[in-house]
Amino acid sequence: MTTDQFDAPATGGKITEFDGALLLITPTELREAIQTVHGPSDAIVCDVAVLDGRDAGTEQTGVMVFPKVLQGQLKAKIGTGRMVLGRLGRGQAKPGQSAPWVLGDPTEQDKATARQHLAQVQPPF
User: Fold this and answer.
1) What is the pLDDT of residues 41-76, one digit of tens each?
2) Exposed, middle or buried: residue 119 (CB in 10 Å: 0-12, 13-18, 19+)?
3) CA–CA separation, 66 vs 40, rounded Å?
């Protein structure tokens, strides 16, 4: 049986839909002044692999990350080829604001899970 060599276009989903999951993220570019319903906003474009939870095994390319704290955690890795590993969740809210989206530091078990994933897949993940 021949395997089809073509993939469907990426969905470009929201990173926040993976709340609580261990994510392996490769930031690829910064896009500035993207027009949104809230006005122009910057976003970091990433490739995302979900390593556990209900969406384990999901891989998406072209995911735009708009939350500012997440951008701060990812921005320095744009164009380096380095991946960021962390568990997506909510940080501490400041008075009058909602809790920011953040990546928590990975545990040793999380790192082992990521290494196992990378041994089984082809780049970019």
Assistant:
1) 999 999 999 999 999 999 999 999 999 999 999 999
2) exposed
3) 11
**CA 62, CA 47: separation in Å to the nearest integer?**
6
Residue 24 CB contacts under 8 Å (≥ 6 apart), including other chains: 48, 49, 51, 83, 84, 85, 114, 117, 118, 125
**What pTM was estimated for this model as a whole?**
0.85
Please state the three-class secondary structure of 65-79 as a single string. ECCHHHHHHHHHHCC
Task: Give the residue ranges of DSSP H helices in the chain.
Answer: 68-74, 108-120
Q: Is 6 left (phi over 0), alpha (psi -120 to 50) or beta?
A: beta
For residue 60, give the amino acid letter: Q
The rounded distance, in Å, linking the Cα atoms of 125 and 28 is 12
